[in-house]
């Protein structure tokens, strides 16, 4: 009698999906550090002089600077973000940002 051939499942490589494949974020949703027209327009983080930011997203749940943003205006403290996160938020064309002072 011949041995019965069994199908063994193939192992698939893990795939990482990017939540935001925007050109500003580079491959895999991670910043590339490359200068682009979008991030070149943002002021250096030491020039962002504000205590509070009023942020509104054009896309509900859009993520930038370590958090999700709403279409409704959201007031946040600038001190809650790193200099790099502030740069990303200010450079993002999907976000409308107003700087305010306390």
Work out the number of β strands. 5
The count of helical stretches stands at 2
Radius of gyration: 21 Å
Main beta sheet, described?
A: 3 strands, antiparallel
Structural class: alpha+beta
Indicate the overall shape. Answer: elongated
How much of the sequence lies in strands comes to 15-25%
Unreliable sequence segments: 15-40
Strand arrangement, major sheet? 4-1-5
Q: What would you note in describing this structure?
A:
The chain is of the alpha+beta class. The protein has two helices and five strands. The protein has a domain of 57 residues: 3-Layer(aba) Sandwich (Ribosomal Protein L9, domain 1), CATH 3.40.5. The strands form two sheets. The chain has a three-stranded antiparallel beta sheet, covered by helices on one side. Strands 2-3 form a two-stranded antiparallel ribbon. Strand 2 and strand 3 form a beta hairpin. The longest helix is centred in the C-terminal third of the chain and has 9 residues. About 25% of the residues have low confidence.
């Amino acid at each position: 009698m011949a041995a019965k051939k069994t199908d063994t499942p193939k192992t698939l490589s893990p795939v990482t999906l990017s939540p935001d494949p925007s050109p500003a974020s580079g491959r895999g949703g991670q910043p590339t550090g490359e200068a682009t027209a979008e991030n070149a327009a943002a002021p250096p983080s030491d020039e962002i002089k504000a205590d509070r930011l009023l942020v509104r997203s054009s896309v509900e749940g859009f993520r930038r600077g370590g958090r999700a943003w709403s279409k409704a205006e959201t007031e946040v403290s600038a001190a809650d973000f790193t200099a790099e996160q502030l740069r990303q938020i200010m450079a993002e064309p999907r976000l409308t940002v107003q700087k305010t002072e306390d």
